[in-house]
Structure formats: structure tokens, C-alpha cells
Amino acid sequence: MESIFITGAGSGIGKHTATVFAAKGWRVGLADNNGAAAAALAAELGGHAKAYTVDVTSLASIETALADFVGPEGALKAIFNSAGLLEMKPFAEANIDRLNAVFDVNVKGVINSTKAALPYLSRHGDARIITMGSVSGIYGIPDLAVYSSSKFAVRGLTEALNVELEGKGIWVCDLMVAYVKTPMVLEAASKAKSVDILGVNVTPDQVAETVLKAVDGRQVHWFVTPEDAGVATQVDSMPWESRRDFVKQITGY
After folding, report:
1. What residue spans define the domains of the chain?
2. Cα distance between the two ends of the chain
3. Do 108 and 131 form a contact (C-beta atoms < 8 A)?
């Protein structure tokens, strides 16, 4: 039986992805800083799911959970780095502690989880590291400056480790997507102008189905929708200075 370990599994994309994999008969490790939410999901999914209270910014926390889930000699097919924070405010108005928390979870959390999972992934022989990226990792997005920069970091880490770890039988990839219909976006205290301009058109189930493709596929960047891929292609085809004007248009600046 294959196993996947999911961070941020207590809600949103992580929760939907866990449900999809459990339905396919996978063992699913559910890690979340909200341990009660993870435990409730484990009870719902049944015997092949196990919940952990995890702070991804703590390497020891994620190591302890992975060691219990996989076992000392076990192997792991995939880790899905889904845990993330979002802040949608102009940089000058945002709280610095919140901005630091966004970067810590979105970047340091991915680094910690990936590092902790390596021994178990290496034993598998055809493993996957899958991380939530964003189309905001293609060009910096106003009102999401720190979140956007965190997704640039995810993109760089993904591309570098994809080359480094291929020889160990580990394929590293990320998911590129715009706004998803999750509480993180829909229930945010403040919203970026681009939310109204672009809309929130992607469901967590669409993301989960993309993760399902990624556990056996060999793409570096997985676009969840054709529209996401289209935006990336459009931006990449523009001269550098023209990209700025395009981003101003789609973000209301």
C-alpha cells in the first residue's frame, strides 16, 4: 500500500487531497497545526489515515510525525507540502509579524518537511515531493508581496531539487494555480484587488486531482487549469518591462 504525507491537511486543499488519496486506498498522514481538525478528518477517513499535530516551522515536530507514520525502516511514496499562509494587504499596511509568519510557513515549512522526508522517500525508489506553488511565483503580485516572494522561493527550491534528487529516485515538482476556493482566500480579513478582477475559479478538488496526477507524472510545474498555464505562457512571452504593465492591469494598480 502506497503512502502520502500531507501538511496542512486539516482544511482546504490539504483536506480535499487527503480525502481523494484515502478513497484510492492510500495510507495518508495528516499533519496540521490544528491537531483537532486533523484528528476529525482521520476519524472520517478511517483506518488508513493517521493524524498529527505538527508545526512545520519546527524540524523536530515534522521529524517526529514522519518517523511515527512511516516507521524506522519504512518508505514513503510522496509528501505533499500543502501547509501555507496568505496575507492580502499592501506591504506598507501589513503587520510585520504576520508577514514573517507567512514566509516562515510557506518557505521554512517546506524546507523542513522536505528535509525530514528525504530518508523515507529515498527508500521508495520512485518517490515524489509535491509542493503548493502559485502563479504569483511567476511575477511579483501587488498586495501579496511576501506571499508572492515565498512562492518564488518554492519555485526555485523545486527546480533545483528536481535536478539534485532525481538520482535518488525522487521527482520534485510544484503546483501552479491562481486563487482557490478555500477558507484562506474566501474568509480572509482583507482581499487583494486582484481577487475581484480575476475571480476565484478553482476548487480544492481540482487541485487534489492534480496532485493525484503528479504522484506518477514527471512534470516540474503542474498547472491546475489551462487558464493558469495560459497566464504563465503569456507572461513568459512578454519583454520584461511589459510584464510590469500586464501585472498592473490584472491587479488593479
Report:
1. 3-251
2. 50
3. no
pLDDT tens digit sequence for 48-105: 999 999 999 999 999 999 999 999 889 999 999 999 999 999 999 999 999 999 999 9
What global pTM score does this model have? 0.95
CB 109: neighbour CB atoms within 10 A?
27
Distance, in Å, from the CA atom of 50 to the CA atom of 5, rounded to the nearest integer, reads 10
Task: Give the angle subtended at the CA of 211 by the CAs of 203 and 189, to the nearest 5°.
Answer: 40
Q: Which sequence positions are flagged as catalytic?
A: 147, 151
Grid cell for residue 13: 486543499
Candidates 109, 79, 6; CA nearest to 49 is 6
- Candidates 3.40.1190.20, 2.130.10.10, 3.40.50.720, 3.50.50.60; correct CATH number of 3-251? 3.40.50.720
C-alpha cell at 48: 488508513
